[in-house]
Amino acid sequence: MDTLGLAQALVCGVSVGGMIALALSSARPDLTIGLFLSNTGHKIGTYEMWNDRIKAVNELGLEAMADDLLERWFSGYFWQNETVQIEGYRMMLSRTPGRGYASVCAAIRDVELANKIASINCRTFCLAGSEDKATPPEVVAALADKIQGQCTILSRVSDIFQLSKLQTQSHNIYVNKWPSWYDINLQPSVV
Q: Which of 54, 58, 115, 120 is the most exposed place for a label (fewest CB within 10 A)?
């Protein structure tokens, strides 16, 4: 962001991207005017859970784990109604390098944000899915409380939102909640 001269940005992050956004905002508050965090927390899962997942990736590979992971990512509604998209995500996940996936698991396991996020004082909006198994609504709500943000829970939604529902909900939140919640004048910038 420094290289591009970006500052006072509304930073959006989903899942591990939300954790990255939290780390950025706590380390460099001058860069963020607001956070839009979806399906994330200051701590996701347990140390043991991530160790088990890393071991499984290393021993079995992602293709063998794909269905279990996808069941955590998508709601039952999505599984029943979007079988073609589920197959596409299964193929994407199966082609993901196991070593890279295991490294991300280790990063999520090892990150310590609980003390760092206390310093975040920018405007924050958190979004959760009612059926999210990876970051349940109570995890997202606890994050919002910890950083004095607002939290909305979408029904029949899991960790990875249906694209059309996410686009609609994001637009509704932006149009109906964000401007009335805070007076922010953002200049659009896509990098």
A: 115
d(CA 106, CA 126): 24
With a CB cutoff of 8 Å and minimum separation 6, the contacts of 45 are 108, 109, 134
Query: Of all helices (H) and strands (E), which one includes residue 110?
Result: helix 98-110
Average pLDDT for 95-100 = 95
Portion of the chain with pLDDT greater than 70, in percent: 82
Tens digit of pLDDT for each residue in 47-70? Answer: 999 999 999 999 999 999 999 999
CA dihedral (68, 49, 140, 64) in degrees, to 10, reads -20
DSSP state of 111: -
d(CA 151, CA 62) in angstroms, rounded, equals: 32
Q: Are 58 and 102 in contact (CB under 8 A)?
A: yes
Neighbour tally for 20: CB within 10 Å: 15
Structure tokens at 163: 């694209």
Give the H/E segment covering residue 124: strand 123-129
Three-state SS at 114: coil
